[in-house]
Amino acid sequence: MNECLTCGLWKQLWCWLEELSSRLQDSNALKLILAVCVALLVLFNVYSGFAMANRCESRSEEEGAGDAGVRIPWNVPFNNQSPINIERNCLELSYFNSPLIWSNYNDVPLGIRLENNGHTLLLRAVFPGRTPSIDGGDLLGRFDFREISFRWSWSNSSGSEHTVDHRHSPLEMQCLHTDAFQDGCISSQGLLVISYLFQFSEDNPFFDVLVQHLVAVQQAGQAVEVPPFPLGYLMPAFYTNFYSYHGSLTEPPCHRGAEWWVHPASLAISERQLNEFRQLRNRRGARIERNARPVQPLQDRTVYLNRFRTGF
Ligand SMILES: *[C@@H]1O[C@H](CO)[C@@H](O)[C@H](O)[C@H]1NC(C)=O
Fold first, then answer.
1. 152, 153, 155, 156: which to mutate for ligand 1, most atoms within 8 A of CB?
2. DSSP character for 221?
3. Is 90 within a domain?
4. Comparing 22 with 210, which gets the higher pLDDT?
């Protein structure tokens, strides 16, 4: 046996087999069977090694295709994806000294257009003067309002994309803003999404200006101009105590980075009002059952609770 320790792999195996078979009363047939087994094992290992290498190659080809602008599958986990679960026990406090400035949200737009795109409800508006915008706080510049989209589901216990302590809200309203100095181009930088979660309550009169028109966009592809109302009806301004984290858009192309602010106080919606959303249909003519992207891993990101520090 000592002699065997110094020889090459095959010799070593052979020595080991010899010793084993001599112990098993020197049966040559047994020796042969064991040798065949060992050879098969070795072949299997080599084969699976090759198979593994091939799989890695095809995966990197897919990633290459993604970089070339080919559609990225919805569920592929990239870094810093949205939505996330917000764990209220794991927030990091962050203080800011300059107040948030919400401008022009109480102006009445020239027109408001609702559209059912088969996946969600979109609200866009045209303004007579300046586009509503948010500034101040830790923001590096002014962010202009672009559009609002909504997430809901047939079930009371799901609907929102973001969860707080793993609980969904029945409705989430996401208000997309872009860096005011990028000429309206939505690039990988300069996106701010302000999100509001809802809870069941009485009718929310501010939302009736929207909800009463949903009957006109029940089919996918339908759009309607509605009597204009200030966006501030839907988007109450807040000045402190909001969550923030760095994420992405939740629809393709999901890799576009976005800063997310989530207003921690829930807005009110009644079941009657939510049911109007639940009537909207997709491109196949079926009612949209749910339209939230699943919660994505937080990985090494931090979720902040942002507080305005008064007195500075
Ligand atoms: C959903 O919530 C509403 C409002 O609380 C309630 O009236 C309704 O019965 C709930 N539906 C189900 C299926 O639980």
1. 156
2. T
3. yes
4. 210
pLDDT in tens, 16-44: 666 666 666 656 766 777 677 677 776 76
Determine which residue's CA is closest to atom 2 belonging to ligand 1: 156
Q: Note the residue count of the chain.
A: 312
- Against a cut of 0.85, is the pTM above it? no
182: DSSP letter = G
Asked, for residue 74, whether it belongs to a domain, the answer is: no
Residues framing ligand 1 (Cβ under 6 A)? 156, 200, 271
| Domain identity same for 20 and 92 | no
CA distance 312 to 309: 7
Q: Which residue lies with its CA nearest to atom 10 of ligand 1?
A: 156
Measuring CA to CA, how many Å separate 291 from each of 12, 99, 145, 223, 270?
62, 34, 22, 19, 19
The answer to whether residues 157 and 220 belong to one domain is: yes
Could you give the count of Cα atoms lying within 13 Å of 153 in the half-sphere of its Cβ?
15
Q: Which of 157, 158, 202, 271 to mutate to test the pocket of ligand 1 (most atoms within 8 A of CB)?
A: 271
In a domain, 72, yes or no: no
Q: Would you say residue 226 lies in a domain?
A: yes
91-115, pLDDT tens digit by residue?
999 999 999 999 999 999 999 999 9
pLDDT on residue 210:
97
Residues 32 and 141 in one domain: no
What letter represents residue 8's amino acid? G
Q: Which domain range does residue 279 map to?
A: 85-308
Ligand 1 atom closest to the Cα of residue 156 is 1
